[in-house]
Amino acid sequence: MQSIKVKSKNHPKDTKNKEINLSNHGKSKKPLIITLGINTLFIILGLLMGSPEEVFGKEASFITWVSFAQLISISIISYRIFNRRILSITKKEAVIWALISAGFLFLSIDEVARIHENMDSFFHKKIIHMKETAITDRLDDLIIGIYALIGIGVLYKFKKELVIFKKALPYLITSILLIFLMVITEVTANRFDLLPFLIKDKAIAHNVYDLFKIAEEALKLYAEAVMVSGFYLCLQISKGITKQSN
To answer: Is 83 buried (19+), middle (13-18) or exposed (0-12) by CB count in 10 A?
Structure first.
């Protein structure tokens, strides 16, 4: 049985050092199984719809909208957690959840509006005044990794609040690993230039390139699915804390 002590300050509804039993919250793995299953079905559907380059290589494919739905879901869940937490702690202590909500709202807009791709184009046209090269064209891929690092930094800043939700840590770690694997595949398959250099047989190189395009989108969807499940677990924990601290 797992329990934690929740201590907060300067809030009329606080329960100082009250032990909160979390053993009955978030035990079920159903949300994770469901989200992974749904994403697997979408990936299979994508494979049946056409070539990997057409379905997984284009930013405006239906896979983009699946990703958008997951990111906006995380934003909504995070905001619901924020509304729960301010019933037990101060807004200053709970602001991390509002920041997470805003961050994923931005990412969802980025997914469909291609903000980081446009940043890449702006960098080439307005900053360095040159055409894209094999190296600089991969800048937008690296921006995703920078987003992830910023997110990790924000989470570390509010680690005292997040300790309460440590049961969701495996979800966070798994999603971060999937994101960085996605960045590696995205950088590798950004253009059909690196793989032909590594693989001399052009036909095999093309097949590997297609597999990397599929893997890139699959890793992104699975990372988001794990995050949706992890934040849903945090929401259940926050509900339990609110009920037992009032």
So the answer is: middle
